[in-house]
Every structure is written in C-alpha cells, then in structure tokens.
Amino acid sequence: MIRAQAPAPPAPRPPTTPEDLLAGERTFRTQCAYCHGPRGDGGRGANLARPKLLHAPDDQALFHVIEDGIPETEMPGHWLPARRIWQLVAFVRILGRTAPEKVSGDPGRGEKLYAGKGGCARCHTIAGRGGALGPDLNDIGSRRSPAYLREALLDPEAALPEGFLQVRLVTMDGRRMTGVRLNEDAFSIQLRDLSDQFHSFWKDELQEIENQPGKSPMPGYSDVFNPRELDDIIAYLASFRGAR
Fold it and tell me: Which of 88-97, 185-194, 202-211 has the lowest mean pLDDT?
C-alpha cells in the first residue's frame, strides 16, 4: 500500500529586494485589502498590522496560510506562484511594524457596558459565556480593527460577516420565525432564532423560506451609547486577542 506523502514545505524565504516588497504590496492591494483593510489593520479579515499573528508565528506558517487558507474561517487559499506568495509574506511582515491604532476608551467601563446597557452577552460569547446567536468575540481584537468595530456597532448591516444570512420561515401550520441560518441543504434548513433557540426543519414542513441578505438582528447603538461609551466598549472588545 502506497501512502500519500504530505506536501513538501516551501523553501526558506528568499532574500527580499525593494522590487519584491513593491510586488508584494501590489498583490496585497488586489488580493487581500478588501478583507484585511488597505493598511492591513483589519476589516472583514484579521488585523495583520501586528508583530505576531495568531495563525502565522513564522514565515513558513504565513506562506501556508496564504497558500492553503485557514479551515472553518473566512480565509481562503490562493493559487499564486511561490515567488508571489513570498513577496506577499515579506510585505505582510512590514505591516507588522506599523504602530497599532490607538484606542482611547477604558476597557473596564466597556466591560460594564457590554454586560449591562448594551445587552451584548445575550447574543455573543466571550470566554465561554453568553449567547450563540452572534459571532464569538473571544479573539475579536485580533480579527477586527477598532474602526471596523465602530462601524459594526453603529451600522451592523454594513459590516456583516462573510456567509451570514438572516432568514424568515413560515411553517405549514402558520408559525413564523426569523433567525440566523446555520446550515442548509436541498432537503433541510437549520437556524438559530432571535431568542437564541436552535431549530431544524425539513423543507417540506415549510410553506415559505425568505432569505434576507443584508439584514441583521443586531441593533445599531448610535442611540444607545454616547461617544465616550462607544470608545469604552470598543476598547473592551479590542482587548480580546484569543490564544497567544
């Protein structure tokens, strides 16, 4: 029996010339900036303007992340020649030397707002505590920039995660339900409703399935938090970096 061999690791990172950095920057602008932000400080994708990256502690690991993506995340693989990937690795490492965006709020006050006035724990989980309707926030500070967090709090529907879809269902007996789709195939659909309850239906049990792209159950907080409170809760969320 012949066993398939694991792919060979890439050769060590070649020396980087100024032309390589320029080429890496061009690739970043066209392939990466949409998710990671033009300065690499995060958006739909992780904040790359950091000296240490959670999934890429060294250059070899970063090469593999770019080439293969990260399973069960929004990060896809890229079919690029090895030289272009190494150019991109070199440019991303330059981004890690950028001074981080300063957050002026107080994380302690933000924690109280998160748990109290904001009601955030009803839908989001931090450190294993909270609801499951919204995304887990345990590493939100490494995945999203403060600017993105601000946009998400003020206008949630402008900052929806990739693959997020709100749906409205009507059952054959007339029950109506709105929630976040978890899984769907040709015969069934699973969702979590706005009270954070899980439901699974065969499609022949439903008389209507309405997809609501661009919609979110998360409210905007422009009328909930004053400017100082908004800074505080952003500082609290930005402090969560996940595993080191």
Answer: 88-97
Question: Which of 206, 152, 146 is closest to 181 using CA atoms?
Answer: 206
Give the tokens for residue 22: 């320029």
pLDDT in tens, 75-89: 888 889 999 999 999
Amino acid at 160: L
> What are the tens digits of pLDDT across the range 34-78?
888 888 877 777 888 887 887 888 899 999 999 998 887 778 888
DSSP 68: H
Q: Tell me which residue of 30, 37, 26, 31 sits closest to 101, measured CA to CA.
A: 37
- Alpha carbon distance 215, 218 (integer Å): 9
CB 236 within 8 A of CB 105: yes
pLDDT band at 99 (very low <50, low <70, confident <90, very high): low
* Residue 94: alpha-carbon gap to chain centroid: 22
| Residue-range domains of the chain with CATH | 18-95 (1.10.760.10), 107-160+218-238 (1.10.760.10), 166-212 (2.30.30.100)
